[in-house]
Every structure is written in C-alpha cells, then in structure tokens.
Amino acid sequence: MKRQEIWIDEYYKDSRFGLRGKVLFKKTSKFQEIIILETEYYGRALMLDGCWMTSYRDEKYYHECLVHPALSSIEKKSNILIIGGGDGGTARECFKYSQVKNIDLVEIDKEVIEVSKTFLPEIGGNTWNDKRLSIHIEDGIKWVKTKKENYYDAIFIDCSDPSEFSNLLFSENFYNECKRILKQKGILAIQSESPESFKNIHIHILKSIKKIFAASKTMYSFVPVYPSGIWSWTFASNQELNFQNPICEEILKIEKSCDIWSLNYQNGAFKMMPNKIIKEIS
Ligand code: SPD
Which of 158, 165, 199, 222 is the pocket-test mutation for ligand 1 (most atoms within 8 Å of CB)? Predict the structure, then answer.
C-alpha cells in the first residue's frame, strides 16, 4: 500500500512544530513512542514521545556543536562517555579525533539504537562498526554511579527534553556525579535546551552547573526542527576552559569535515547569550 504524507507536530505550550512526510516506522517501546518520518526537505526525522530528536537535514547543527567545542579544547581525549545519543551522531563526531580510544555509549532504550541503525544510517555512519564503541543499554543515572573518580576525559549529555524518565539527567545530583568521574582536565558537554522555549529548565541547568563546576560556558545556535529553533550547549570543567586557543593538532582537518561548526562559528556562538538570561543567572 502506498504510504500517505501526513503532518506530524511537536506541541509545545500553544505552538507546534511540524514536519510533513510519510511514516516509515512507528512503535511504542518500553520507554517511549518512536516515529521515523520520511520528509522531502528535512530527509528522515526521528521523533520520541512527541518531540523531534533529529533529522538528516539539521542533525549537524546539533551534533557538531555538542562535540567540537568540547573535544577541540581539551588535551587528552581518549576515554569518552555519551549518555543518550542513541542515533549515533554524537559518537560519529567524537570519532573524528584520532586520540579517542573508547566511547561508552549509555542509552536507556535499545530500540532507539536499533531504529537508528535501520532507518537513520547516515547519522551513525561507520560508528556502529567501530571497535572503540561500547554500547551499554542502561540508565545513565545508574551508570555514572558505578564509575570511579577521574575516569572520563569527556562526558556528553545527549538526552531528550526533561520527562518522567529523563528528569534526573537535569538534576544537581547527576551533575555532581559527572564532576566526580570527570578527570581534572576533562570536560562535560550538555545539551542545555532552548533559552526561548525551555527557558526555565535552561536557567536551571546553567545555575546548577555554575554552582558545581569551577568553570562553565554556554553557546547558542540553531537547530531548525526543535521548538523555537534556538538551542544551547553548555560546557563545564573542574579547571579553566580553553575555547580561545584550542589544543588540537587535528583542528584544521576537523573544521573541514564539518558542515556547521568551525572555530569562528563557535566564537560567535559563545557571545550569543540573550541579555534576559544573563540577568537571570547572575
Ligand atoms: N528538543 C529535543 C532535544 C533533544 C536533544 N537530543 C537529541 C538527540 C540527538 N542525538
């Protein structure tokens, strides 16, 4: 039977953010409803529990901004943790650095990984066959508790918006655990929601991180399919952050490989904090 095109919207307060296309896959896993939509303009898109997670057209706006400011700014980057990230895009960007020896990808919902491998092969790319990748189907909150101090060089929180089962990934307890298992010169990178459509949780993240870590900085850019389009990524460390003079021999190669991120892009994005957010967090 020929698939019909339909509109699927993410509802946020009194607005909605929709894509039109054909549903390739729809299933409710143990944790959430998973939809893959094939659209003409955005390509394939993944929706979890009514929220757009990623699409072929705009995923690089998100994944490149989560990974490269972090990994280009730290000297050692061999052992990495990704919490969430079941579509493989964050791991793919990490593997661009030859120093990376191990990535623990901790995803609570194994169906997200399976669906991504099947329907979004362009996002994970070769990641799924890379021997340096260890996939753990596990709750990220439990995972960080089992790790010893000073363990990871970089931790990426690539989670969904706050919900019943992801709420704790936005808690101070969780950030404290991340701090504990992060090496002294390591970096934590968080998708820190939208200063517009998720303003309260965005401010909560920034304030919590500021309280817990010695240094933190937030950058702002776009992810077209997310509510309001404007999005943010927050980076934190137990020591000074170094975005101005990145320590990375491969930086030119990495820049060339990216569609969105570059040092220039990042420098502008770190200056984009809206005044109303500055007022609320200071
Ligand atoms: N509003 C959606 C926020 C989701 C952030 N994570 C997306 C996962 C992409 N790897």
Answer: 158
